[in-house]
Amino acid sequence: VVTLSVLMYPVLRSLALQLHSAVTGSYISGTHSIAFINCLNEQIAKDIARAIMDKKLAAYVNILPKSSALYFWKGEMEESTEILLIVKTRTSKIGELSNYVRSIHPFEIPEIISLPIDQGNPLYLKWIEESVPQD
C-alpha cells in the first residue's frame, strides 16, 4: 500500500491540481513554458517561427533582433550574431517542439532551452492554453 501510494503520488497530485484549477480558475505553475531558440539570421528565424506556428507547437513567437554571441565550439572561441526566438507554449509540447526544431534547424546543435512559466496574466496564460492543442 505504501509503495503504491508513493508511486501514485505524482499522478494524484497532478489530478488534484487540475481539479483545483478547473474549480477556482487559478493557474497551475509550470503548465506553460517559454522556449529560447537561436538562429543564424532573420530569414531562418522567420522560417522556423512560421514552421512552429504551422504545426501549432506554440501560441506566440517573438523574433528579437540581432545580438552578439560568444561561445566555444570545437575547442575554439567563436563570435557571431544571432536572432533569438522566444516561444510561448504548453510545457507538455516542449519535447515535440525541441525534436521538430532540431529536424529543421541548420545548426548542428541548435540552442533550444525552455523555462516553465511560474505566474503571469491569467487571461494570457488561458489564451496560450486555448491556442496550443492538448497532447
Automatic annotation (TrEMBL):
What InterPro entries does UniProt report for this protein, alphabetically? Ion_tolerance_CutA (IPR004323), N-reg_PII-like_a/b (IPR011322), N-reg_PII/ATP_PRibTrfase_C (IPR015867)
A Pfam family matched in the record: CutA1
User: Which residues constitute the signal peptide according to the record?
Assistant: 1-16
Example GO BP? response to metal ion
Which controlled-vocabulary keywords does the entry list? Signal
List the molecular function annotations (GO) for this entry.
copper ion binding
On assembly, the entry states: Homotrimer.
PANTHER family, alphabetized: CUTA DIVALENT CATION TOLERANCE HOMOLOG-LIKE, DIVALENT CATION TOLERANCE CUTA-RELATED
Concerning its family, UniProt says:
Belongs to the CutA family.
Name of the protein described by the UniProt record: CUTA protein
Task: Report the source organism.
Answer: Pedionomus torquatus (Plains-wanderer)
Tell me the lineage of the source organism. Eukaryota, Metazoa, Chordata, Craniata, Vertebrata
